[in-house]
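User: Teach me something about this protein's shape.
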Amino acid sequence: MSLLERKSNSSYDQKCNQFLKEPQVRFAGVLDPMGNLIAGGFKDGIKPLEDETEIRKMFMEVVLRVTTRSEFDQSLGEVEYSASRRKKVVVLSFPLGKKILLVSTDKNVDIDKTASKIMKFFGV
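Assistant: First, the predicted structure itself:
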């Protein structure tokens, strides 16, 4: 089974699928500590900008970045979210305990508004 074709009925999967109905959202997924996609995925009709191998590397890199940032929680406070505005998309990551919520949107979103909506929707 392909990395991007897995199916689940978890509450995370249901929330990701519901959030994918937002017009500017391209991807909403939950990663485990090993960078495996355990819920969510790409919106129907969206073609990923990377191939499956590169997506897998990106997932592992996101987990590494989020884990590294947590080393400064005591001095700086816990990370609420991280965002990267790229030329083609905006990528946001949210710690969910040992898991990570990863969301990709169209490039023109208001990052703070979108992050606030995501945190409210997912209870982050």
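Now, about its shape. The longest helix spans residues 52-69. The mean pLDDT is 88. If you'd like, I can walk through any region in more detail.
User: That's plenty for now, thanks!
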